[in-house]
Amino acid sequence: MQIIIDRIPCFSSGFGYFTSYNTSGNSIAYSLVRYLSEIYGDIASISNSDSLLSSNTPSTKMPPAHLYNTRRKQWISNKILDWLLQNNNPDRNTKILAVCDFDAYSGELNFVLGEAHFGGRVAAIYTPRLRQELYVRQSDPNRLFEQRVAKEAVHELGHAFGLTHCEKSRCVMHFSNSLRDTDFKDHRFCERCNIILKRQAA
């Protein structure tokens, strides 16, 4: 099994965002390799797509415009997942984690921090809302952002491996109603979820 981290930028100012590949974004992708290797390393190898797919330029990675809701100024998460699946066509031994530099929503939810095809091959996290600061005394906002990205990545990949939400508030599979919930929980699975993960991945 392999997990490929694929960073998806938003390049159009008409969508309300203008981001591109930069040192900060690349460092997040590489730090995710470290975090995910710690959590999933015994069941999957972790790779950053930038080091694997030189032909995957930002222009080819950009989602098509019809996946964007112009009224809400947000991308449609479930359609992003469908596009990721079609665009990457991963085999049964590959899971794609898209790190998206734009905001998204799904169904009746005003926004989502991430989403995945349950038991499927694609997952996505959306970084803009993970940058919001909740704690005035936080001395290292970059470190806080990195931790949030890691937790949401582990969480959504957990769904891709077939894990449901966990009642334990410290477990990474606990549902986050807010960033406060994300900051409170750990980036690891509780014992029960870890056992289920190993069983599902076997």
Secondary structure layout:
Elements: E1 2-8, H1 23-40, E2 45-48, H2 49-52, H3 58-61, E3 68-69, E4 74-76, H4 77-88, E5 94-100, E6 104-105, E7 114-116, E8 122-126, H5 141-160, H6 179-184, H7 191-201
Parallel strand pairs: 1-2, 1-5, 4-6, 5-8
Antiparallel strand pairs: 3-4, 7-8
What descriptors fit this protein?
37% helix; alpha/beta; Collagenase (Catalytic Domain); 202 residues
Overall helicity: 25-40%
CATH architecture: 3-Layer(aba) Sandwich
Strand content: 15-25%
Widest sheet: strand order?
A: 2-1-5-8-7
Number of domains: 1
Could you give the order of the helices and strands?
Answer: EHEHHEEHEEEEHHH
Total number of strands: 8
Which fold name corresponds to the CATH topology? Collagenase (Catalytic Domain)
The CATH class assignment is: Alpha Beta
Mean pLDDT: 85
C-alpha end-to-end distance: 10 Å
- Number of helical regions: 7
User: What is the global morphology?
Assistant: globular
In angstroms, what is the radius of gyration?
16 Å
Q: Low-confidence parts, pLDDT < 50 over ≥5 residues?
A: 13-23, 52-59
User: What structural category characterises the helix and strand content?
Assistant: alpha/beta
CATH superfamily: Collagenase (Catalytic Domain)
Strand count, sense and barrel status of the largest sheet are: 5 strands, mixed
